[in-house]
Amino acid sequence: MVNMKRVFVGLGMCVGLAAGAQPSAGLLGPARLEVSEPSAEEFVDRAKAAPSLMFRAADLPDIRRRLAEDPDAKAWWEGFRRALDANIAKGVKVPPCGAQWYHWYSCRKCGAQLRGESPTRHVCAKCGEVHSGWPYDDAYWFPFQHRCGDMVRDAGVAWAITGERRYADVAKGLLLDYAKVYLSWPRHDNWAKATDRNPDAARAFSQVLDESVWMIDLVRGFDAISGTLTEEERQTIFARLFRPAADIIYKRDDVGRPILGNHQCWHFSAYALAALVMGDVARVRESIDGLSGWKYQLSRGILEDGCWYEGAWGYQFYTMSSLAPYFTALRNLGYEPPAAFKRLFDSPFRQLAPDWFLPAVNDTARVRFAPGALADLYEQAWTWWGDPQHGWWVAQQPRRTMAYALWGRPARKDAAFTPPASRNFGGIGLAVLRSRSPAAKGPLPDNMLAMDYGPHGGWHGHHDKLQLLLWGRGRMWGEDPGCIAYGNPRHWGWYRSTLAHNTLAMDGRNQAPAQGRLVGYAADGNAAVVAADSGGAYPGATVRRATALVDDIVLDFAEARADSAHEWEWAFHARGKQETSVTNGVAVQTTPPEIDVRDRVKVEAAQNMDHWLWVEDVREGAHDGMWHSVWRQGGDALHLFQKSPAGMLRTGTGPAQPPPEKFRLAVNRVKGGRHLAFRTVMTLDGSADVQIGDEIARNGWRGFSATVGGRRFELTINGENVRLVEKDGTGKAVRDLAAKR
């Protein structure tokens, strides 16, 4: 199996196209981190005492003792060795050619991943559609290249632990086989062009990013078996594999300016590890203090709330996976991983949703982050920093991972876990509101609402400013579709579109890339409220949105102000069976466009098409300004009530995550003048006892009132604050929540 860090199974789209997108200027801070580490010369000198990248020779007695005495480590070792021996028996061979981009390997019909039945036959695992020819035949070899990298690394580990020469011979054979063919493979890019001009073109893969991921495992396996190689074998591997690959990787970033992104973290990790085994002091120094080295990446890429600037959990964990091998090697050579790196490990705990997933914002799949998830990464974090939260996390599941076997330390299963609370993540621009229902069980609050108002997210950002994500009674309702393979037109035409998110679209177009502005945020007990504006997302218009979560009730006020009349679409998506108050809807014909995936221009141009083309079973009917929708899953129900100007309600079935999963849309289409507002109440407990009052406009504050189950609320916003008031039967305020200034 291909390691999850290399593809998008579980973590989201972790093999990107962008060559290193920059964040907005407002995110850039000082490029220096005050750290103390050995010099590059000292690192290289210490690395001569191989093995040193994954573990040191002095560590092996403790590792062997753990494998013999610890039940979890022993179980991992037995399974690891059994799988390794089976793969050796099958015969893992170097592929016959360089591989093509893995993002091509998705179904053109439904977007799901393909299953390779042969080098020329590729079948959708979900709908059965058969694919062949370019790019599928070339992308077929992608996992095989990584399988060879895995084999070199794993055989190196087995040799170091057992001393059985057969394992070292397997790793050596693959390395020498690569050295025979690597330079004969032409450099090629994601669009099959054989070229040396594109700095992102590679040989074993179609982009330098994937070459880097693969190289890290080759180099670590080499380091483990280095003592078994002759000097001639070492120099052959250096001259015909490691050095030319490291040159391609290094030169990708050697452009005279800093480049920020997950790609660059993989790049310097790969060329630095190769430099350590080859004795290249200059490249090691570049990985530390260079324009795009680790100090620059951590100082600029990690935001004030500990989140990675690209705003997608798949890419945050992908970046962490790139840095872990690098800092493991530096730790073995005398430098402890920096505290700044730890912030990336801490931030996911604070955004956990009630179903133990993380919000699927921007280019990512839905990442499950339940106790024990991403165990290899968090085993290392627990070993490095000893944070009790990390220790609790890894102890909740059997610790049968390579990381525990090689580097693990004891952890207490009964250690305290701190439940996440309502919080505004100002760096990434995500406000999280939480409450506990009477039915809540377990450590996590079972209701959660998140508003995304922050930076666009660079190349991996979506057109989704002011979108809402919603969980109620432990179940996900308001959903972000995340993303699918970037080579699939559906990704561009639907998954990135404004219509696919729970926000407002203007005139049927995507929002412009923009950063919103937080107007106000406040939380107290079982209630929280947030408001933000859309920044420059709507040319010629501004949207402000105020949203509150109180117990099992959501209040939402969105108003648009524009320089002229526009058509607005207020959208919400949820899974389950849907019923609406508009029963006389008529069918609207939609057909997904057929786009040749070999035509790059047409694939990316899908984002400019009518986004409704990707939605099935579309119906629309008129409403007089008040409408209602309910979604049902099992015994649970989400009710949505809305008042707005009269318009048309559209429903339909849209692509969700992961494909071919679907959700049901409710989209209020209103043609308005320069100002219009949408007043919404949602109930998470199945209650339909809702009355929405008129708009409130007094002393610069705007909003609305509502009565829900006999409880009276007012939600209002002005240019600098947001306010939630709950009143009793006499009109006296029993809750008055506003941002503190």
Describe this protein with a few key phrases.
single chain; 741 residues; alpha+beta; Beta-galactosidase, Chain A, domain 5; 29 strands; globular; disordered N terminus
The rounded Rg comes to 27 Å
Helix/strand structural class: alpha+beta
The end-to-end span amounts to 53 Å
Mean pLDDT: 92
Describe this structure in words.
It is built from 18 helices and 29 strands. It has 741 residues and is an alpha+beta fold. The chain has a domain at 429-738: Beta-galactosidase, Chain A, domain 5 (Distorted Sandwich). A hairpin with a 7-residue loop joins strand 13 (527-533) and strand 14 (541-550). Helix 9 runs parallel beside helix 12 (313-332). The longest helix is centred in the N-terminal third of the chain and has 23 residues, at 231-253. It is globular and about 85 Å long. The model is unreliable at 1-34 (pLDDT under 50).
